[in-house]
UniProtKB/TrEMBL annotation:
Signal peptide start and end residues: 1-24
Tagged with keyword Protease: no
Alphabetical list of Pfam families matching this protein: Glyco_hydro_10 (PF00331)
Keyword Chaperone (UniProt): no
Protein name: endo-1,4-beta-xylanase
UniProt keyword terms in alphabetical order: Carbohydrate metabolism, Glycosidase, Hydrolase, Polysaccharide degradation, Signal, Xylan degradation
Boundaries of every GH10 domain copy: 22-145
Length: 145
């Protein structure tokens, strides 16, 4: 899904470039920089780790990244107070190496809550959520928002 979105966006950008008569930037990132615009994409950690064309396109075309799933609760905290930062850290490190911002999202979302929270009482769920949010915000304190 993320790859199709990137391909469609690049195709649309190519049409815009050919339709203009004045010299235009050669990449989405360059065009965004000319207008002081943030242009980003959601990235999946699998292709980011293993597909050269994906990595190259993401680095070249975008100045902002958001982890597709690597920073969501079910991935980051698969069991109570046991955190897996590897996917999110990979996105943050890739962005840092390529001069890109990182935007986080969905600290808590009903669609990707870990299975262990499903049977928590309201009295137990609120502290679990607070703990999760606090730990994620502390770990990713350099993420833009």
């Amino acid at each position: 899904m993320a790859r199709l979105g990137i391909v469609a966006l690049l195709a649309a950008f190519g049409l815009i470039l050919t339709a203009t008569s004045s010299p235009a930037a050669s990449t989405l990132r360059a065009a965004a920089a000319e207008k002081n615009i943030v242009i980003g994409t959601a990235v999946a950690t699998g292709p980011l780790a293993g597909e050269t064309a994906y990595r190259t396109t993401v680095a070249r075309e975008f100045n902002s990244l958001t982890a597709e799933n690597a920073m969501k609760w079910d991935t980051v905290e698969p069991s109570p107070n046991s955190f897996n930062w590897s996917g999110g850290d990979a996105v943050v490190n890739f962005a840092a190496a390529n001069g890109q911002r990182v935007y986080g999202h969905t600290l808590v979302w009903h669609s990707q809550a870990p299975s262990w929270v499903q049977n928590l009482s309201a009295a137990d769920l609120l502290p679990a959520m607070r703990n999760h949010i606090t730990k994620v915000m502390q770990h990713y304190s350099t993420v833009d928002s």
